[in-house]
Amino acid sequence: MKAPHFDGSDAANWISRVQYYFDHKMIPEADRLHYVVMLFEPPASEWIFNYRNNNGFVTWPEFLEDVRHRFDPQSFKNITGLIAKLVQTTTVADYQATFERYLNRVNNLTEEALIPIFIQGLKQPIQEKVELQHPGSLAEAMALALRLAATQDDRPHQSSTFSRRQWSGKENRFIAAALPGPTATTEGPNQTGETSGREVDRPRVQPIRVSNAEKSERSRRGLCWHCPEKWVPGHSCKVKLLCYMDDDLEMAQKDDSGECFPDDEVITADLSHLHALDGKGSSKPFMVQGNVGRTAVQVLIDTGATLDFLHPRIAERLQLELTPIRPFRVLVGNGASLLCTHISRGTKLTLQGTLFLVDLHILAHHGPDVILGMKWLESLGKISADFVEKTLEFTMEGQAVFLRGMMPGPKQISLHSLSVLTAQAAEHEFYEIVPFDCNMGLTDSSTSDEFPADLPSEVLTVLQGYRSVFDQPSGLPPSRLFDHRIHLWPNTKPVNVRPYRYPYFQKAEIERQVRDMLEQGIIRHSQSPFSSPVLLIRKKDGTF
């Protein structure tokens, strides 16, 4: 076995190999420093001679660390962050090789954490197909990705002898001439530039579909999704492209709206995690239901926000007292700047029965009504947070406070994922998940009409005096002094309206409600030829 020599290239690989070599030869660490000098070749040998002359006493681990810092340019980088941002740009084999090269430098990541990182970096549709298989190990995920890539590459392309010529109108000719694409050339006996007059070869423009992996890579490099130029707020592509857009909820759209403010007008403030308010991230936010006064608000607990913020619509609705402050900017994730000029001091915010006095900056952000950042968290003192179960525990005025976040509901499946699932089997069953209140239907009708016992006596007296207002209607409305009918001109013909076909479940619901209202006497049969559309809105309990 020959010792591995080192010329200054691929330092991480050489360090691993020389470690195995010395361990195999059972050479003590004190003797390795004398032997390793002979393994250095030009141009790295110049460095080792100078290193030995200037470092009288050094241990073997310190020497390997110095070699890594000298010859490995990525030794000072966060390798864990590089692996998390790694995406496939060429083939699956090249992506796997790069992933394994970074993996050799990381020791603090478990295999359960590496599997989703590797899958998220794959291109579509391989990424989604690997996720559906639920690989149990990283090696299984890599083998599955390579097999799927080989299957796609070896798939025969269908070609037909007879092809139908696509019609190209006047508008399409102008669009095709302006779009970049491969120039079609005619090959045959006549190559002087003359055409037959019957067929003219036109540039064929293929639709461009940008995958999630390509979007992530271009966003990391600061490029536009659809052109090679740098992306800035208000960017417009110079070259018009023909892009393909489908009904896939997983294809996130980039928000280029936002107004930038000059740097010399306001102070710059950083709110790095504000871009997560759009709900486009893979992680689930820490949302809590709260109240400002008597108004219910949604509160986001964000450890990435420096200050605490309130949406101006809540401040305007409650007519809060606002104090002008020195203007400053809040930079959000899409590059836009939001201006903050006022603050609501000592705002009474109630979270699950606990009252807090918070200084809320007024910010027209997109997302929840209130954002509680690090300033509010620091005021709580020592806290215990579980961001998986969305819980927060702390002590306030000698009493233990426990806050539980709102867990998100079932995720809606995308059209692309549904197509992949239906292509794997011949028979399918689909179910709709509807939230249902378990307490519905359990209370007796005699007690449902009773008013709450904790009401003030004055309010209870008024409600009991007008009990008939709360009864279910059992007939037509009483006669009025005014006729509210819509009178038409004499001999007016009905409007010719095409019948609108409702889905089955909506049709059944409409018929049920009409039947119930006829039985209660709320409505009656009508012979009028005029009609109006019906709009059904599903309530939280699943009914319409």
UniProtKB/TrEMBL annotation:
<feature type="domain" description="Ty3 transposon capsid-like protein">
    <location>
        <begin position="13"/>
        <end position="152"/>
    </location>
</feature>
<protein>
    <recommendedName>
        <fullName>Ty3 transposon capsid-like protein domain-containing protein</fullName>
    </recommendedName>
</protein>
<dbReference type="InterPro" id="IPR043502">
    <property type="entry name" value="DNA/RNA_pol_sf"/>
</dbReference>
<feature type="region of interest" description="Disordered">
    <location>
        <begin position="178"/>
        <end position="200"/>
    </location>
</feature>
<feature type="compositionally biased region" description="Polar residues">
    <location>
        <begin position="183"/>
        <end position="195"/>
    </location>
</feature>
<dbReference type="Pfam" id="PF08284">
    <property type="entry name" value="RVP_2"/>
</dbReference>
<dbReference type="InterPro" id="IPR045358">
    <property type="entry name" value="Ty3_capsid"/>
</dbReference>
<dbReference type="InterPro" id="IPR032567">
    <property type="entry name" value="RTL1-rel"/>
</dbReference>
<dbReference type="InterPro" id="IPR021109">
    <property type="entry name" value="Peptidase_aspartic_dom_sf"/>
</dbReference>
<dbReference type="Pfam" id="PF19259">
    <property type="entry name" value="Ty3_capsid"/>
</dbReference>
